[in-house]
Amino acid sequence: MAHPFDALTADAMRAGGSWKWSTAGTDARGRGLIGAFVAEMDFPPAPAVAEAVRASADANHFGYLADAWVADMAAACAAFWSDRFGWAPDPERIRPVPDVLTALTTTIRHFTPPGSPVLVPTPGYMPFLRVPAMLDRELVRVPLARDGWTLDPDALDAAFAASGAGLLVLVNPHNPTGRVLGEAELAAVTAVVERHGARVFADEIHAPLTFDGRVHRPYAASSPVAAAHAVTATSASKAWNLPGLKCGQVILGNDADAAWWDDVGYLAEHSTATPGVLATTAAYAHGREWLDDVLAYLDGNRTLLAGADLPGLDVTVPEGTYLAWLDATALGLDEPPSDFFRREAGVVMTDGAACGRPGGMRLNLAMAGPVLADALERIAAALP
Fold first, then answer.
1. Is residue 164 classed exposed, middle or buried when 0-12, 13-18 and 19+ CB atoms within 10 A define those classes?
2. In Å, what is the CA distance from 270 to each residue of 82, 96, 97?
3. Where in the chain is the domain with CATH 3.40.640.10?
4. What is the DSSP letter of 65?
5. pLDDT for the residue 17
6. pLDDT at 294
7. Quick one: which of 195, 192, 273, 183 has its CA closest to 236?
8. What distances in angstroms separate CA 132 from CA 84, 109, 135, 174, one per listed residue?
9. Are the C-beta atoms of residues 81 and 88 closer than 8 Å to each other?
10. DSSP string covering 298-351, please?
């Protein structure tokens, strides 16, 4: 039986005007481009979220953010994380921010030694590779092992020792490879970070998006030691497709960090959007059935990718997120692979160089199944 999402055609997406589908032009065969780069979904919003946004407009809730709305959001977030991941953070330690990038910049500025470098595993989320320099911090890249995209504790230890870094940016589930870290990996990271007296910025924005029975393990919940040095950032923006509503959450792992945030977090919180907070509360509290349906649909798209015949491309089907990694190194292209496949296949993907891993591409699977099938067929036909 067809799913309603199957009716979301590429033409309709282009007409909608979203950033993901706004790349102008055609491919070498004159076909319209398929947007598969920025990490947002093509699916209509959860009914509870849409109703919350309409209700905020009807009630004229466009003013500054009230403490009661923040408290409601924090309670809904804590309940969702408790039910889904077995971690019940204190709602008093959950604070609003516009997005995860704001959380990261605040963490670097106020939770690490002045001037200390920042470690980012690569391939990584593109802005995380740019933010440190904007804050006059050295970026230290720690390459993930290609066999399973694992973070080698010895490599991490060596990077800390050589750089004196004060922060590790840990993205789990991982963007752009889709890895979901297990308890043993988290414990190994904790030991290294603690040995060097550093902190962890845990980006867990994709936490609800896991597959094949995997369950996200919050870093701060993995041990008291981890909780003492972690700042967790999350949002409903990925799982419920709300990035334009500008609402994320910082979860402080201990009382000392929460008290310090009270002193330094004002500017970080100030730009959080009131409608976004109200929509986020609705998503966590009333959007779970919609989320489960989306997860099942995305799992079908994972199956499409896994079954695609793409000789020469090393394909990583994501364990979590809706982002797949395609390694085109074996093709021996004399140009960035994203440029090649945009021109020859009309599929717009994020180039691996922007993620710190030239030769690869990040492919967004969160589109209608028939559109994804077309994209994969185009990629296959374009292979040299």
1. middle
2. 27, 9, 7
3. 61-286
4. P
5. 85
6. 98
7. 273
8. 32, 10, 5, 19
9. yes
10. HHHHHHHHHH---TT-EEE--SBSSEEEEE-GGG--SS-HHHHHHHHH-EE-EE
Phi, psi of 23 (to 5 degrees): -65, 120
Please give the CATH architecture assigned to the domain spanning 4-45+288-382. Answer: Alpha-Beta Complex (3.90)
Centre a 10 Å sphere on the Cβ of residue 24 and count the other Cβ atoms it contains.
6
Ranges for all domains in the chain classified under CATH 3.90.1150.10:
4-45+288-382
Burial of 6 (0-12, 13-18, 19+ CB in 10 A): middle
State how beta strands 139-143 and 118-122 pair: parallel
Instruction: For residue range 116-154, list pLDDT tens digits in order.
Output: 999 999 999 999 999 999 999 999 999 999 889 999 999
Q: How far is CA 262 from CA 53, 74, 226, 269, in A?
A: 28, 15, 21, 10
Is 145:152 a contact under the CB 8 Å cutoff?
yes
238: Cβ–Cβ under 8 A, 6 or more apart, which residues? Answer: 39, 205, 206, 208, 209, 321
**3-state secondary structure at position 16:** helix
Interatomic CA distance for residues 180 and 199, integer angstroms: 20
Asked whether the beta carbons of 3 and 334 are under 8 A apart, the reply is no
Cα-based distances in Å from 306 to 4, 144, 273, 300, 314: 23, 22, 39, 10, 11
Question: How confident is the model at residue 59, as a pLDDT?
Answer: 96
Contact 249, 73 (CB under 8 A): yes
Instruction: Please state the φ and ψ torsions of residue 11, each to the nearest 5 degrees.
Output: -60, -40
Residues of the chain with confidence (pLDDT) below 50: none
The CATH class of the 61-286 domain is: alpha beta
Query: Could you tell me the CA-to-CA distances from 223 to 90, 215, 216, 217, 279 in Å, in that order?
Result: 16, 17, 15, 11, 32
One-letter amino acid for residue 365 of the chain: L
Residue 1's pLDDT is: 77
Q: 375, 367, 371, 376: which is closest to 42 by C-alpha?
A: 367
- Cα separation, 173 vs 191, whole angstroms: 20
Taking only the tens place, the pLDDT of each residue in 215-248 is 999 999 999 999 999 999 999 999 999 999 999 9
How far apart are alpha carbons 31 and 246 in whole angstroms?
34
In the prediction, which pLDDT does 295 show?
98
Residue 265 identity (one-letter amino acid): G
CA distance 163 to 140: 8
